[in-house]
Amino acid sequence: MSSSNAQRFLATGADDTALALKMFTGTVLEAFRAKSKLWHDDAGVISKMVINNGKSHQFILNGDVPVGEYHTPGDELLGQAYEFDEGTITVDQILVVHYDIPLDQTRMSHFPVIAPKMRDLGVGLAIDLDRKLFRVGVNSARSAAVTKNGITIHNGGNRVERVAATLAAAYAVSVAGAQNFRDDVAALGQAMNEDNVPEDGRNLFIGPYIRRVLGKDPTIFDKDYSNDSGDMNARRLPMLEGFILHETNHLPSTSVTAGPTSQRGDFTVAGASGQPAALALCGARQGNGGVGFVQNGDIYTHMHFDERRNTTFMKAQIIGGMGILAPYCAGVIEVDDS
Predict the structure, then answer these.
(1) pLDDT band at 134 (very low <50, low <70, confident <90, very high)
(2) Of 3, 146, 151, 177, most Cβ neighbours within 10 A?
């Protein structure tokens, strides 16, 4: 009997299953990128740095430019005062999502187990990172101004507050509710203009409820009012008051007391600042975002069969840290009950 050509299709070089591990890693990364709106950062609003050693990275913040002054010929020009400051983002602990899947359950299951859990690793890591980044973004927008030796480094973040008992009370599902939200977005845009934040590349992240509210005002989607009016039936979001709209489920709405300080805060309506209805993040001429992220190495994935336990162990992890960087590039619309 002749042997068949049973091609070892997962082999690369001496490793008989190399492609299986590559497919595992590729699946995890694909799922991660699909769910990480801020970390993947298509909008370009996060200042990110990859470091291969060390635990922190220094981002330089440039202070305000001086005003012009009149000069009398003959007087010596000695140079006007200027200042730099720093924003240091430190790497936190390892953030990991992991599973240990028993062999007997895998063999007896009538549905696939390994492949969905591979995707879940990427999704879980992405959602957790995104939620953390949104909390830091809100805290950045809540930050106060900073001065150094009498020179303004930045004017702090920008907040627009609407007093109401709930998010629904502030922005009802009606034309009036949509116009209330539009007025608040316009006020946020004005505050950013007054801080000299460039108008290009302004992004506004809203939740599904606010997306529903905006649909009640047809002028927001009307082509007579905008060249980029969106599509109400296709649920394609338009621009609003100069902001590119993005929908997310990750705006914070609870009180967070654990974890790194930059990620903590009371994000409830009853809190000191209120519940975020929208978060604005954008770039600045200095090249800094409202949120900084330092990553030590790339996303690491691993999978192996544990002979001692008869389980398949898999994990995805990242070593990184995030923090407030340039608050003038962040803005928040919040609903506060007082």
Answers:
(1) very high
(2) 177
Residue boundaries of the structural domains of the chain: 15-62+93-338
Residue positions counted in the chain: 338
Residues 6+ apart with CB under 8 A from 124: 97, 316
- Cα 213–chain centre separation: 23
Joined tokens for residue 76: 């010596």
Whole-angstrom distance, CA of residue 66 vs CA of residue 89: 28
Quick one: fold of 15-62+93-338? phage-related protein like fold (3.90.1690)
Phi and psi angles of residue 223, each rounded to the nearest 5 degrees, phi first:
-70, -15
Model pLDDT for residues 15-63, shown as the tens digit of each residue: 555 545 566 677 777 777 777 778 666 667 877 777 666 666 667 777 7
**Cβ–Cβ under 8 Å, residues 309 and 276:** no
Angle of CA points 221, 225, 229, to nearest 5°: 35
For residues 338 and 336, give the distance between their C-alpha atoms in angstroms, rounded to a whole number. Answer: 6
Report the pLDDT value the prediction gives residue 287, as an integer from 0 to 100. 58
Burial of residue 225 (number of CB atoms within 10 Å: 0-12, 13-18, 19+): exposed
d(C-alpha 241, C-alpha 214), whole Å: 13
The answer to whether 294 and 39 are in contact (CB under 8 A) is no
Residues 102 and 23: their CA atoms lie apart, in Å, by 21
